[in-house]
Design goal:
A hairpin with an 8-residue loop joins β11 and β12. Helices cover 16% and strands 36% of the residues. It is α+β, with helices and mostly antiparallel strands and 310 residues long.
């Protein structure tokens, strides 16, 4: 069993409009844009990162905004809900704020004993604010949102699957423990994790497979401390039969990827070197950072990207 994964590192989704996406996360949700860069495989598309002050692993939501991409179709074989942790007693504040900001499908529920507020993002993606105990993480107090009610990072994520047996086995191998079941949803948790340490598996045996597009989660990344731990995890996964990519340098972390039995794309990402490797923490996300191979084309790339603020 793998013992080096401590919870989530980041979640990466797709969007249809960069400016709208940036406004939603920095203004409506009050997260900090910690990096403004481009897609490694398509430098004409932004890669935007939002999180806490430093972009701490377990707090970072990232997006590829492909202009005018078709909206995704929800279904099985995907991450269906991204869950953010907020302080207990803060949901009334968020109810008022999200309502005033025009968030759609806004409603409350209770899952696994926790009060939650559910809503949709600008491309129809599903989010939940989950009241949770203080885990020592500090919220970024952007857009006038006080730290006492702010988002502290992820609490976890939910998958929709036709069958959960193989994914349950994989999560167990990755160090997650089965916690409890609520209806058709089973929760797994990393003991002593980083706060972003729960995964919920929902069984929808007759639902069609999802079609990726705007609002879809592209992949979900799990955190390990460093490259040495990552190599150990890679070997363990390959020894178990998974087809895992070589280590890829993503500038702010190193990454490996593999496809799960349920169809969800997993990444294992390192906590090193972090988002301050090329910017001072006080000025994260302010200027466009490019992978080295694209730097000679900066003028052309910048001219083709939509400014994020009017």
């Amino acid at each position: 069993m793998i013992k080096d994964i401590k919870g989530l590192h980041h979640i990466t989704s797709m969007a249809s409009d960069a400016r709208q996406n940036n406004a939603f996360f920095t203004d409506t949700l009050g997260l900090r844009r910690v990096k403004k860069t481009v897609n490694f495989d398509d430098p004409n598309v932004y890669h935007l990162y939002y999180g806490d002050e430093a972009g701490t692993p377990g707090s970072v939501m990232t997006y590829f905004p492909f202009p005018d991409v078709m909206r995704g179709r929800p279904g099985v074989g995907e991450v269906s809900e991204t869950q953010f942790a907020v302080p207990k007693g803060s949901l009334s504040y968020w109810q008022d704020r999200l309502s005033a900001k025009g968030a759609s499908n806004l409603h409350a529920d209770i899952a696994f004993g926790a009060d939650r507020l559910l809503f949709k993002g600008t491309d129809g993606e599903a989010f939940a604010l989950v009241e949770s105990d203080d885990d020592g993480r500090k919220a970024w107090n952007g857009a006038g949102i006080d730290e006492s009610v702010g988002i502290r990072g992820f609490s976890g994520a939910k998958f929709r699957l036709h069958d959960t047996a193989a994914t349950s086995e994989l999560l167990g191998f990755m160090g997650y423990q089965r916690a409890e079941t609520d209806g058709d949803v089973t929760r797994f948790i990393i003991p002593g994790g980083n706060g972003a340490d729960t995964i919920d598996l929902e069984v929808l045996s007759k639902t069609p497979f999802a079609r990726q597009g705007a609002g879809s989660v592209h992949h979900i990344a799990f955190a390990v401390d460093n490259r040495a731990k990552q190599l150990e995890v890679r070997k363990a996964l390959m020894d178990t039969g998974y087809q895992v990519t070589p280590v890829i340098d993503r500038d702010y972390f190193w990454a490996i990827y593999f496809r799960t039995p349920g169809g969800v794309l997993f990444e294992i990402a390192t906590n090193e070197p972090g988002f301050d490797r090329d910017e001072d923490t006080a000025h994260l996300g302010e200027v466009l950072k490019l992978p080295t191979r694209y730097e000679p084309y900066r003028d052309q790339i910048e001219a083709g990207l939509t400014p994020l603020a009017a």
